[in-house]
Amino acid sequence: MALHELDICKKAAELNYSAKQRDGNVVRLPETAKVIVTGDLHGHRRNFERIVTFADLENNPETHIVFQEILHGGIEDDAGGCLSFMLFFDIIRYQIRFPDQVHLILGNHDTAVITDCDVLKAGREMNHSMKAAMKRKYGDDFAAVEGALKEYLLSEPLAVRCADRIWISHSLPGDRYIDDFDTGILDKKLQPADMLRPGPAYLLTWGRRHSEKALARMRELLDVDMFILGHQPQDTGWAVAGKDLLILACDHNHGCLVPLDLTKSYTIEQVIDCIVPLASIA
Question: Which fold does the domain 3-280 belong to in CATH?
Answer without folding.
Answer: Purple Acid Phosphatase; chain A, domain 2 (3.60.21)
